[in-house]
Task: inverse folding
C-alpha cells in the first residue's frame, strides 16, 4: 500500500485499480500513512495556514429539483427568502471587518432573467472591496450569464459535478438535468477565466465505489482549482430522507487522495463534515484540506438554507465564531491565513 501512496505522491495519478485499492484499504497504519503524506504535501504548498471564506447564502429560491437537496423546488415546506442587496453588502462589511478577503455567494439556481440583478450585486461588492475575491456558487447558467458575472468582477465559481457517472447522475437529479451539461458549464467557466471548483457528495444514495473512482479520474483530468467534497446528509422533506448519511472517514480519505493527485488545489473541509462529527472539520484538515468556509449569512436566514438536516451554521462554523475556529485549529498546530488565498500563480 505504501508504494501505491508514494507513487500517487510522486506521479500525481494512479490507475483506476490503484484508486480503488486506496479507497478500500483497511489497515489503519496504511490509512494513517496516506493522511501523513497528504498533510506533508498540503504543508509544503500552504504551510500550516488555513484559508477562510465568508459564505453568504444569497437565496433558497431554486428552479431545480435535485432529489437530495432540501431547497429543491418541490419542497413546499421551505419558507423562501432572497437577501436584499443591502443585506448582502452588510454581510460583506461585517465579514471584511472580521478579516475575510473572500466572499462566497451561494444559493439556489435562478432563471437567466435575474442574472443582471446578480451582476449588479457583484459590481457593488467589487467596487467597495476591490481587494477581495468574489466566489459564486449559483448553479448552471448560460455562457452569456457566466460571462456577464465574470465581467462584473467575480473571480471564482463553485459547481460540484456531483457525480461523473451518467446513470447515477440521473438517479440524483430530475429529468432534463444531465452530467454532459454540468461538465459543459464547468468547461465554460474555466474558459472564461474563473478559478473553478468541482466535486461530489460522498455516500449519496446508489453511489458505488466505481463511481467514486470515476470521479477521481475526472477530477485528476479536469484539474479544478478548488475541490468541494462533503458527505451526503439526508434532509427530511426530500425523496432521500430515509437514506443513511455518508461517511466522514471516506470523505477524509478522498481529500487525502486528491491532495496527493492535485497538490495545489484549494480543498475545503466542508460544513457537512462539521455537521456529522464534532471533529469532522479538523479531520478534514488532517487529511490535507486547507480551506474552511464559515457562515456569514444573516443569522435569521440560516435555518431556511437547509440543504440537509441539522446543517451546522453557528459556533466555529459561523463568521462570528471565528475565534472558536482559530482555537480549534491551534489544537492541531494550524492557524487562519487571512489572505485572499487564490490558486497558486493566478
Ligand atoms: N445551486 C448551487 C448550490 C448548491 S448547494 C449549485 O447547484 O451548485 C451546494 C452543494 O451542496 C451542492 O453542490 C451539493 O453537493 C451539496 N448538497 C446539497 N444537498 C446536500 C445533502 N443533502 N447532503 C450533502 N450535501 C448536499
Result:
Amino acid at each position: 500500500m505504501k508504494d501505491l501512496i508514494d507513487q500517487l505522491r510522486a506521479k500525481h495519478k494512479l490507475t483506476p485499480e490503484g484508486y480503488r485499492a486506496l479507497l478500500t484499504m483497511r489497515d489503519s497504519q496504511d490509512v494513517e500513512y496516506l493522511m501523513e503524506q497528504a498533510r506533508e504535501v498540503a504543508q509544503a504548498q500552504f504551510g500550516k495556514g488555513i484559508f477562510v471564506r465568508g459564505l453568504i447564502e444569497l437565496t433558497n429560491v431554486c428552479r431545480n429539483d435535485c432529489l437530495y437537496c432540501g431547497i429543491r423546488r418541490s419542497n413546499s415546506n421551505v419558507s423562501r427568502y432572497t437577501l436584499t442587496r443591502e443585506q448582502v453588502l452588510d454581510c460583506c462589511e461585517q465579514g471584511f471587518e472580521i478579516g475575510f478577503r473572500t466572499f462566497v455567494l451561494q444559493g439556489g439556481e435562478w432563471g437567466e432573467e435575474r442574472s443582471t440583478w446578480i451582476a449588479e450585486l457583484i459590481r457593488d461588492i467589487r467596487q467597495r472591496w476591490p481587494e477581495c475575491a468574489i466566489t459564486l456558487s449559483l448553479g448552471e447558467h448560460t455562457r452569456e450569464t457566466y460571462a456577464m458575472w465574470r465581467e462584473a468582477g467575480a473571480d471564482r465559481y463553485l459547481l460540484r459535478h456531483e457525480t461523473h457517472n451518467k446513470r447515477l447522475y440521473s438517479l440524483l437529479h430530475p429529468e432534463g438535468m444531465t452530467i454532459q451539461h454540468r461538465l459543459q458549464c464547468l468547461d465554460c467557466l474555466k474558459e472564461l477565466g474563473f478559478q473553478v471548483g468541482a466535486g461530489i457528495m460522498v455516500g449519496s444514495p446508489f453511489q458505488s465505489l466505481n463511481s467514486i473512482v470515476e470521479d477521481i479520474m475526472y477530477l485528476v483530468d479536469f484539474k479544478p482549482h478548488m475541490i468541494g467534497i462533503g458527505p451526503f446528509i439526508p434532509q427530511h422533506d426530500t425523496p432521500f430522507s430515509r437514506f443513511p448519511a455518508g461517511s466522514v472517514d471516506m470523505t477524509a480519505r478522498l481529500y487525502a487522495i486528491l491532495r496527493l493527485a492535485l497538490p495545489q488545489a484549494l480543498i475545503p473541509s466542508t460544513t457537512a463534515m462539521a455537521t456529522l462529527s464534532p471533529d469532522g472539520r479538523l479531520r478534514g484538515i488532517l487529511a490535507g484540506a486547507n480551506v474552511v468556509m464559515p457562515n456569514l449569512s444573516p443569522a435569521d436566514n440560516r435555518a431556511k438554507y437547509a440543504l440537509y438536516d441539522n446543517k451546522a451554521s453557528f459556533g466555529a462554523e459561523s463568521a462570528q465564531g471565528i475565534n472558536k475556529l482559530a482555537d480549534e485549529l491551534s489544537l492541531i498546530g494550524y492557524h487562519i491565513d487571512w489572505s485572499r488565498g487564490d490558486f497558486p500563480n493566478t
Remarks:
- Residues 2 and 122 are 47 Å apart (CA to CA).
- Residues 68-69, 106, 108-109, 137-139, 159-160, 162, 201, 230, 232-233, 235, 272, 307-308 surround S-adenosyl-L-homocysteine (CB under 6 Å).
